[in-house]
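Data card: per-record layout.
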Amino acid sequence: MSPQIDIPALSSLEFVLYIDDRGQLPEPLQGRIGVYAIFDQAQTLQYVGYSRDIYLSLKQHLVRQPEHCYWLKVQTIDRPNRTVLEEIRFAWINENGSVPVGNGADEGLWTQAIDAKTQMTLEEQSSYARAIDELTQMKVLKQVARRVEAEILDVLKSRGVQAEIRFNPKLKEAGLLDLK
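The structure for this 180-residue chain is written out next.
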């Protein structure tokens, strides 16, 4: 039996800036458990998720979808309880009237590591195809991942982000980008 919970209406919660005037994500959310809604610049709902560490999840989403992360609404809870988190998430999506793009067709773009292979240039595709062994292919993938990483960091810099962003170096060998 799940505990009785008061689910706040998404519309009743205040908007919070995703990136503050110091270029930081909302630091009070570090280590906090809860549900969060991410909105674009026009305050259109893009994604609703829940996490055991909202701050880390927000950082991942910012790296994966920087053009859609401008505003937040958050509800924290004191103890992890998947049922409660899922109920709040479901209620907020229902309140929205339609499934946000990040919870529908584009969910993988919000929740999975960035696949740099999908962003290979023709030259990079050719180098990869000509690679004589796995080690050479791995080097090409690593170069592609580094290029895509640099592009992401440029976008974040243009948004004024000052928070530390570190990608997992081991994943780059497979052409993937995810935060460490």
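Known properties of this structure: The CA atoms of residues 2 and 81 lie 9 Å apart. The first helix runs from residue 54 to 64.

See the next section for split statistics.
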